[in-house]
Amino acid sequence: MMELAVPIIVAIISAATPLLLAASGELVVERAGVLNLGIEGMMLMGAMAGFAVTLLTGSHIAGLAAAAAAGMAMALVFAFLTLTLSANQVASGLALTIFGIGLSALIGSAYVGQPVAALPKLDVAGLSDLPVIGPLLFRHDFLIYFSIAMVPVLWWYLNRTRAGLRLRAVGESAEAAHALGHPVIAIRYGACLFGGLMAGLGGAFLSLSYTPMWAESMTAGRGWIALALVVFAAWRPWRLLVGAYLFGGVGIFQLHAQGAWGLPSELFSMLPYVATILVLTVISAGAARSRTFGAPAALGRPFRPSG
């Protein structure tokens, strides 16, 4: 039984990692009061840049750095449009996604079909070979451990540091935070850049670890699922971890169910997105809304400093 369960659990961990990375960044962005719908575009640019640089240099470190830089560059464009020019956040985020899909496909067309070495797995002598525990805990790559480690780090940052409390204050009332002397625009710029970095790394995980290759639109809607995860988690890091692994499990289930039952693949491919809709519906309705649905008060509201 465990021989069958372990590979499935490992697959769920891998499927959840890009969601957790991208959603962790978006959680910080939204806690600062900014709604960025461009996660899908940032992830694709990160996936393309990470794969291309790793292929050209042979260095995974350079590839991850390039993925992070690509995501941050996309986020900087969004931040400039919405924070400096006061453009509509929803429209700008959608435009960012469309731009990222097109640009990544254009630049990445030269790399389609080329192989690249996958991110190396952790190999701890005496531990990696242990039955059950070894493959579950000690045979993953850096980004998997990084995604999990970021959950307590974000909780500590948002709840136990002055910078995190200032960021939350900006997300609740930018005007009040500005009146107290906090640099609202600078804080939101920093949050957007962090969100881009995490989305870029989420994309890099797809092209360098999950399926070490580049393919057009390989994120397959994961950016939208990451957005839903932030709402599912009620903007709390620990719930984000649970949600990411829940949605990762749904994705793996549809692959196994498709092979076992022989039904049309399109039917099972719908499952993660159906689950996304159901989760958003449940937590937005009735008593569940009052318990868990607590969006930052200033989310999506533009701010222009007076004077």
Task: Provide a compact summary of the structure.
This protein is mainly alpha-helical and 307 residues long. It has 14 helices and no strands.
What does the model show?
The chain is mainly α and 307 residues long. The chain has a single domain (2-292), classed as ABC transporter involved in vitamin B12 uptake, BtuC. Helix content is 73%, strand content 0%. It has 14 helices and no strands. It has helices spanning 2-31, 39-57, 60-84, 89-108, 133-137, 142-160, 162-172, 174-179, 184-210, 222-232, 237-261, 265-269, 271-283, 286-292. The protein starts with a helix and ends in a 15-residue tail after the last helix. Residues 286-292 have low confidence and may be disordered.
Main sheet properties: none
CATH domain class name: Mainly Alpha
For the record, the count of structural domains works out to: 1
Count of strand segments? 0
Basic shape: globular
Beta content: under 5%
The structure class reads mainly alpha
GO molecular function, one term: transmembrane transporter activity
InterPro entries: ABC_transp_permease
Keywords: Cell membrane, Membrane, Sugar transport, Transmembrane, Transmembrane helix, Transport
Subcellular location: Cell membrane
